[in-house]
Design a protein that fits this description.
The chain has 310 residues and is an all-alpha fold. It has helices spanning 5-17, 23-53, 61-85, 92-113, 126-129, 155-160, 187-204, 210-227, 230-246, 253-269, and strands spanning 134-135, 138-139.
């Protein structure tokens, strides 16, 4: 996720690399790094509280709001400063990291803010669980309106664009996080961002590169916990491990250690969603574009999630 240690390593490394050439871009990357470290601690707190209070418990509203706010700020920084400056010709890793972080922040938005909710994480209040079929002109299930943003996803537009004045947060049909970010179905947008990040990583990075592994590991987690397609998640994890062993390029010790850690996580993901009789427990049809079911619990996912995952 955007809070993973591997992404943070690349953020610090690339911020130093462009410091002399582009001080503004360097400062923004350092800001995203600080935001990522803060977000990591918030997600860890939310995960611990869910484990202590039960699988169906929700994070406190202030923690929930803080997570959404940090994710929104990350999207704005990427959309306004990083993506316009990142080019493949100058730095391949920076371009891929920018797309990966974009997908990561939307992953968090889907977990905590999506309408309709895809997990029980984002349902803090009855208002958050039952919203009207049309919120601020967005039809549930049809996704978020796309603007003419730099990337094409319209992150700045979907985040900052105003709407009709409604009741205070927590009162009325809108979720309590609506004042931070426009409600809507961000699932298709997040999936699109992941696919584009993976496409770039496969074209320009070798199979054992830790940034490429980070992209695919989080996408496998996204498929399982948000799309609820356990079979696709397990298949991606298996294919990614094969690519690591087939890679012939040399890597340094730090990247080797990161690759080993991610391969271990992927190995656990290959078994995620399987019952004791090794039969796959499906919550939705693979590839289905309909609204995923919400009956996903911690009991169905005994395997520890990757760092920063809920």
């Amino acid at each position: 996720m955007a809070s993973s240690e591997i992404d943070q390593k690349f953020l610090g490394k690339l911020a130093r690399l462009v410091e002399n050439e582009n001080p503004l871009l360097s400062s923004v990357l350092f800001k995203i790094l600080g935001l990522s470290i803060n977000l990591s601690s918030q997600l860890i707190t939310a995960r611990k509280q869910r484990r202590q209070d039960g699988s169906s418990a929700n994070p406190p509203l202030d923690l929930h709001l803080h997570i959404i706010w940090l994710s929104r700020e990350g999207l704005l920084l990427l959309d306004q400063y990083v993506l316009p400056s990142a080019t493949l010709k100058k730095n391949v890793e920076l371009k891929i990291l920018a797309y990966k972080l974009l997908a990561s922040f939307y992953h968090i938005i889907v977990l905590f803010h999506n309408t309709p909710p895809v997990t029980t994480i984002g349902t803090n209040t009855p208002e958050g669980q039952s919203t009207t079929s049309v919120v601020n002109g967005i039809d549930k299930g049809k996704g978020v309106e796309k603007g003419n943003g730099t990337y094409g996803h319209g992150a700045s537009k979907s985040i900052s664009e105003g709407g009709p004045v409604g009741p205070p947060p927590g009162f009325g049909p809108q979720p309590p996080t609506a004042f931070l970010m426009k409600p809507g179905d961000y699932l298709p947008l997040a999936q699109q961002c992941f696919k584009e990040a993976i496409q770039l990583a496969e074209q320009h990075l070798w199979g054992s590169h830790s940034l490429r592994l980070s992209v695919k590991t989080e996408y496998a987690a996204f498929l399982y916990e948000c799309v609820h397609d356990a079979e696709a998640s397990r298949k991606l994890a298996k294919e990614t491990i094969s690519e690591v062993y087939e890679a012939t390029e040399g890597i340094d010790n730090d990247m080797f250690n990161d690759a080993c850690e991610l391969v271990t996580v992927l190995g656990k993901m290959m078994k995620r969603g399987l019952g004791s009789n090794n039969t796959l427990r499906k919550t939705s049809n693979p590839g289905s574009q309909g609204t995923p079911r919400i009956e996903q619990t911690e009991a169905q996912a005994p395997v520890t999630a990757p760092p920063g995952m809920i």
